[in-house]
Design goal:
Largest sheet: 3 strands, mixed
Strand order of the largest sheet: 1-2-3
Radius of gyration: 16 Å
Strand content: 15-25%
Number of helices: 5
Helix content: 40-55%
Structural class: alpha+beta
Number of strands: 5
Order of helices and strands: EHEEHHHEEH
Shape: elongated
Distance between the termini: 14 Å
Length: about 140
């Protein structure tokens, strides 16, 4: 089985110059944990809930909600995003993608074809795949 068969195709993305407050709101509304950062269609980074949490905690310890929101409004994605990002081809096996997630200690892999983002494969996608296999 290949990644193209289980990847999520409806992907939310952010720009490296978006502010963290916008990213945090989008993640909360859409219930997302990972957002690829694109520049001219190419994946240049990844921002996660953990990145947002660390950024907010490190700079607003002891301050109120208003100060935290002001801080998040002032910081850009490019300042906290993870890069370089491990990516996979849609033709890679699901097992190989699972190995990468486990060995790198990450929660998702952007799926790229000809340098363009076409999907994401997450631990949740792998669990759904496992459940479907067990049900079959």
């Amino acid at each position: 089985m290949q990644v193209r068969e289980i990847m999520s195709k409806n992907i939310e993305v952010v720009d490296r110059n978006d502010n963290l407050r916008t990213v945090e709101e989008r993640m909360a509304i859409k219930q997302l944990r990972h957002l690829p950062v694109l520049d001219q269609g190419e994946v240049v980074g990844m921002v996660t809930q953990r990145d947002l949490f660390k950024a907010a905690m490190s700079s607003t310890m002891g301050y109120g909600e208003k100060a935290q929101q002001a801080y998040l409004q002032s910081v850009r994605v490019k300042e906290i995003m993870t890069y370089p990002v491990a990516t996979v081809s849609p033709d890679i096996s699901v097992a190989a993608a699972a190995d990468m997630l486990i060995n790198k200690g990450i929660g998702c892999l952007p799926v790229v074809d000809d340098h363009q983002l076409i999907g994401l494969v997450t631990k949740t996608d792998l669990l759904r795949c496992l459940r479907a296999l067990k049900a079959a």
